[in-house]
């Protein structure tokens, strides 16, 4: 069974809710989601996951969160080549520029990016939660 890591950072829980729903979708598809806050993730274990899903909201200046998530992402960057990766996160306004930048970084690292990153404005409503479950299911089958 594929073990899929779902690793996220969240301040006010919107991205955390997305992470939980995506994990539910992965499990429903018959894979095994390992849901971890980035603070609990050891970058050295990255290669024990068949695929990974990374979640972080848009933070200051359309960027990844600088203190925990950005250093984590840099720490795993050289191990993403050839790996299947999906991205998600919540944002507060605008056109989700942070996600477009993040997709580009992941592509430039030679990872196999699934679809576009999944973005939700603010807290996920019922329809967004359903989309998160679907996203998890489809990524498990990707
Ligand atoms: C310090 C700070 C900076 C933020 N910067 C942005 C930003 O540049 N662009 C944006 O769309 N939203 C921005 N937001 C809004 C968050 O992305 C939004 O509230 C999101 O839902 C937070 O996700 P979370 O509940 O998982 O923490 C910012 C929020 C905070 C607290």
TrEMBL record:
GO molecular function: FMN binding; oxidoreductase activity, acting on NAD(P)H
Domain of life: Bacteria
Residue ranges of every copy of the Flavodoxin-like domain listed in the record: 4-140
Pfam families attached to this UniProt entry: Flavodoxin_1
Transmembrane stretches, start-end: none
Protein name, as recorded: Flavodoxin
